[in-house]
Automatic annotation (TrEMBL):
A Pfam match: tRNA-synt_1c_C
Name the record gives this protein: Glutamine--tRNA ligase
Organism domain of life: Bacteria
Domain annotation tRNA synthetases class I (E and Q) anti-codon binding: ranges: 451-525
Organism in which the protein naturally occurs: Gelidibacter pelagius
GO molecular function, one term: ligase activity
Region (Disordered): 125-145, 546-572
SUPFAM superfamilies with a match to the protein in the record: Nucleotidylyl transferase (SSF52374), Ribosomal protein L25-like (SSF50715)
Length: 669
């Protein structure tokens, strides 16, 4: 088996086998068939990626087909949103088609089945039909209308179409086998009466086909070669094939249904019905609320098509359902924005720093790099003056050895500017620090451990920042039959902050993305105006939600940076645990690598530079340990550690390493 063959997923293997058996490559045709009853969510991106990805791989057409058979839930708004989402992801469909395009053909085929004695009109209540259908272990029984004459069935079905009956009074059922082991084969419904306005056909029809009847027949009409569905449709495959058996002609292509595992994401719900409830109960602002897992919500939050595609590619195509850690999705957007987002300075929790030896009224425009990952990004000018805003967390009057930032005893470098020394503070009556007073120095010989960001008070632009967190506090909020998923809502999923940003952002446009240095990635929201800038937090610089479950009802908790001692044994140092995690790192699958990375980042909060520095000399062959060291270094740099010669040498070596994982992590620094 060649390396190329080995890399194929199981669906590609099926297609390759069909081609090897004589199917023409020209006959390959795929489709993405959403129902327009809601907005697409991240789970749909897998189905989109599979079908359109196969189209790109085999240069085959892909239809965008709207399965619009239920006018009670479907709207043109959803059609428009779906088209926008698929196009935004970068995919082009061959034809835009609708199941409603085939209503007449489906009706004609249904009449044909009645004439052949393979369908009949049932006039029972839905409760009676359900009772007669049996159970998975007990066969069903024939209903009283199963043996109606063909003439009566034809008459009733036509009168159903003509609107002579009330909703619920009659249905059309396929006549298969009420004793079949597959309950879906026990005379399934084909049509029901719905006197509702359809978003495309208006009031032309008052009977509408069921999905199982429509699905395969639509595939057949469109000459779809491979009908790809999520796993819940696997039991439907037998019915799919039975319906096709009734209409397929020998000289025409017969579709083949195959199933793949759907995408489930932790701390998220994927039910459109439940997502609609969040919208209708005003838990979120709409389908495109940045906390929603919808594609429109992710787009508004600042996600990119590249990041979502990378996520889908990493997840892969599987045969069994599982839950993917949302940290993987967040990792993918960090990786993408790290390469493309301009670096700027913004202060989200400001305290004023007054530099007393800097002349009043003086200002300087200093040069700042836009993105060290992009040589073409160039530089910009940022204003410096006597009064600055810095982050409140970047100052403590006194602090321990693990606090690298500004104190009354410890100097820091201001990003792109000078070294500053704090000398006194001004407090209000409650003891809160209102101002920090200090002095600056241009002496290049002064060594400091930390660099912090800042914004000039005189030039600062006020902005609203919407800090989004996960909408749910439980990893699987809709898997508890005894609890409503709404019970797991995170009350702190949105925090509104008044921030100050550098003046280069004054003309930022909607959807522009930036890295607020040392804080995370942010995108300009559509609510932003020339008078009021509004930013959405896309994702932090690292995962702050490293979780471990504790019992079936646990909401999860942050990974403890220091495990509890067992059997009175001395507590292990964080650096030693990090070393142990690093040894196994390269042998882990990508998802577990991400979880391990998050654990290392949490542990790194309890590591000093003096503890870490000796690991810079780790042998080249111990890649895992070097990766763990680089991850830890990233946290220390984020906390404000000043880069020195040893740090630069270690980072340079990481950039030049042959191990792709180490290079990727190094680039993120």
């Amino acid at each position: 088996m060649s390396e190329e063959t080995k890399s194929l997923n199981f669906i590609e293997h099926i297609i390759e086998e069909d081609l090897a058996k004589g199917m023409s490559k020209e006959d390959l045709r795929f489709r993405f068939p959403p129902e327009p009853n809601g907005y697409l969510h991240i789970g749909h991106t897998k189905a989109i990626g599979i079908s359109f990805g196969l189209g790109e791989k085999y240069n085959a057409p892909v239809n965008l087909r709207f399965d619009d058979t239920n006018p009670t839930k479907e709207e043109q708004e959803y059609v428009d949103a779906i088209k926008e989402d698929v196009a935004w992801l970068g995919y082009k469909w061959e034809n835009e088609v609708y199941s409603s395009d085939y209503f007449q053909q489906l009706y004609d085929w249904a009449v044909q089945l009645i004439k052949e004695g393979k369908a009949y009109v049932d006039s029972q209540s839905s409760e009676a039909m359900a009772e007669q259908k049996g159970t998975p272990t007990q066969p069903g029984v024939d209903g009283p209308y199963r043996n109606r004459s063909i003439e009566e069935n034809l008459d009733l079905f036509e009168r159903m179409k003509n609107g002579e009956f009330d909703e619920g009074s009659h249905v059309l059922r396929a006549k298969i086998d009420m004793g079949h082991t597959n309950m879906l084969m026990r005379d399934p419904l084909m049509y029901r009466i719905l006197k509702r306005h359809h978003h495309r056909t208006g009031n032309d029809w008052c009977i509408y086909p069921m999905y199982d009847w429509t699905h395969g027949e639509s595939d057949y009409i469109e000459s779809i070669s491979h009908s790809l569905c999520s796993l819940e449709f696997k039991p439907h495959r037998e019915l799919y094939d039975w319906f096709l058996d009734q209409v397929v002609e020998d000289d025409k292509l017969r579709p083949k249904q195959r199933e793949f595992a759907r995408l489930n994401l932790s701390y998220t719900i994927m039910s459109k019905r439940k997502l609609l409830r969040l919208v209708e109960e005003n838990i979120v602002s709409g389908w495109d609320d940045p906390r929603m897992p919808t594609i429109s919500g992710l787009r508004r939050r600042g996600y990119t098509p590249n990041a979502i595609k990378k996520f889908i590619e990493t997840v892969g195509v599987a045969k069994r359902d599982n839950i993917i850690d949302v940290a993987l999705l967040e990792f993918c957007i960090r990786e993408d924005l790290n390469k493309t987002a301009p670096r700027v300075m913004a202060v989200l929790d400001p305290v004023k720093l007054v530099i007393t030896n800097y002349p009043e009224g003086k200002e300087e425009w200093l040069e700042a790099e836009n993105n060290q990952e992009d040589d073409s990004a160039g530089f910009r000018k940022v204003p410096f003056s006597r009064e600055l805003y810095i982050e409140r967390d970047d100052f403590k009057e006194q602090a321990g050895s693990k606090f690298f930032r500004l104190t009354l005893d410890q100097q820091v470098r201001l990003k792109n500017a000078y070294i500053v020394k704090a000398e006194s503070v001004v407090k209000d009556d409650a003891g809160n620090i209102m101002e920090i007073h200090g002095t600056y120095s241009e002496d290049p010989s002064i060594k400091v451990k930390s660099t912090i960001h800042w914004v000039s008070v005189r030039h600062a632009v006020k902005a609203e920042v919407r800090e989004y967190d996960r909408l749910f506090m439980h990893e699987s909020p809709d898997t508890h039959p005894e609890k409503d998923f709404m019970e797991f809502l995170n009350p702190e999923s949105l925090k509104l902050v008044t921030a100050y940003v550098e003046p280069s952002l004054k003309d930022a446009k909607v959807n522009d993305r930036f890295q607020f240095q040392r804080l995370g990635y942010f995108s300009v929201d559509e609510d932003s105006t020339s008078e009021k800038l509004v930013f959405n937090k896309t994702v932090g610089l690292r995962d702050s939600w490293a979780k471990e479950s504790k019992g079936s009802g646990a909401t999860g908790k942050k990974i403890q940076s220091q495990p509890k001692p067992k059997n009175n044994q001395p507590q292990r140092k964080a650096i030693d645990i990090i070393q142990q995690l690093g040894k196994k790192y390269t042998n882990l699958p990508e998802e577990k690598q991400l979880a391990t990375k998050a654990e290392i980042q949490e542990l790194a909060k309890n590591v000093t530079y003096e503890e870490l520095q000796p690991w810079f000399n780790t042998a080249a062959k111990k890649v895992g340990t070097r990766i763990a060291t680089m991850i830890t270094l990233g946290v220390l740099l984020e906390q404000g550690l000043e880069r020195n010669e040893d740090v630069d040498v270690f980072i340079t070596a990481g950039m030049e390493d042959k191990n792709e994982a180490l290079v990727t992590i190094t680039k993120s620094l």
